[in-house]
Description:
By secondary structure, the protein is α+β, with helices and mostly antiparallel strands. The chain has helices spanning 3-7, 10-13, 55-66, 159-176, 179-182, 239-252; strands spanning 24-30, 33-39, 44-46, 50-52, 75-77, 81-89, 105-109, 112-117, 127-134, 141-145, 151-154, 185-190, 195-196, 222-224.
Amino acid sequence: xxxxxxxxxxxxxxxxxxxxxxxxxxxxxxxxxxxxxxxxxxxxxxxxxxxxxxxxxxxxxxxxxxxxxxxxxxxxxxxxxxxxxxxxxxxxxxxxxxxxxxxxxxxxxxxxxxxxxxxxxxxxxxxxxxxxxxxxxxxxxxxxxxxxxxxxxxxxxxxxxxxxxxxxxxxxxxxxxxxxxxxxxxxxxxxxxxxxxxxxxxxxxxxxxxxxxxxxxxxxxxxxxxxxxxxxxxxxxxxxxxxxxxxxxxxxx
Length: 253
């Protein structure tokens, strides 16, 4: 069940118009109030309130392109650094078996996670992965705009983050030493660290860019509602916290 299945029922669909094949260039402002958006095609879409939900890369990029939100926009980028450990499986191992034992999460430390992936898709047959994640990262990156106006993402993993990934790698080595793994794994390939978990957050953080209601400081009628407003990245996968955030701020707005 997706969030669209859960929230976009027929009643909502009757009141929503979705525009495809275009993108928002900037937020239109009159005085200190947002009054709509300007699309890349030049079309202006008026609105009494603008709610930006473009994620931790797209939202700060749009605010920066519009000159809104202040100096903190795009700073404080956070992500869960990851270390992929690819398992080359022995011939005959069925990677398509389904059940409670597949795609599960195992955690030995409060800030280290190991995600088990039973296969990597049709383009990589015979492979599985144990993905180590540092779930309380201390590294801070940024999102800026390039000369052509596209977002430039600069992730940062701290030395402490790398230490926690090393802790997770040792746990993986313990798991792989078990006879159950030895029976199905032919060889192991440790990837480059850090590989991102695609959990980017915190580039329009509450207290720096928006207030507790998601409203952008000094610009009336403008709010940000997505993972970019978390002051600190959750120590879990941010999907459910982001859904709760959207539901909470949506009720307020």
